[in-house]
């Protein structure tokens, strides 16, 4: 017959056994939890690192595209790279005119002033000796008027530069009608600026010199020259 003492000892043994097993289970659970936590931290770190790489690559790709989009188009590159020829060439006047136009497109007032002064010099150097008397007379009138507006551009803030550029563009267009040009030009037109204003470009892409970044693509090609 089992005595009360033996029964108590048996219960105590079972209780200790259960307690030991429970402690082992808790210990194993803690170890497992710690391992899972470490694994999760490692996975998260790797994911973040990969994510940063992806963002970095995307940003780099975006910046490259942005650089390409902000760069000169083919026509604008031609405008910048036109041959100087001799000082008296009408092509040299066109080169300086296009550079000035691009400065207005870029809203660059100081560059506009600088290029206005350069255009004054190239206008003054135009050699009209090979033209007929009537053409010489007309060209001289054009050059006098164009020079006046180029001088104003070299001394004026952006708003007034654009006002004078409108008349300057007409003068240069009239000059090309007499001298001709080695390149295909596009007369472009903005209906919004000063009741309608035209300018010349070597690119079909419209880049508005009268509004710049405010309305960069406002306008259309209205005539192809040469």
TrEMBL record:
It comes from the Bacteria. It comes from Winogradskyella pacifica. Residues 93-183 form the DUF3347 domain. This is Uncharacterized protein DUF3347. InterPro entries: DUF3347. Residues 54-88 are annotated as: Disordered. Residues 54-81 have a biased composition (Basic and acidic residues).
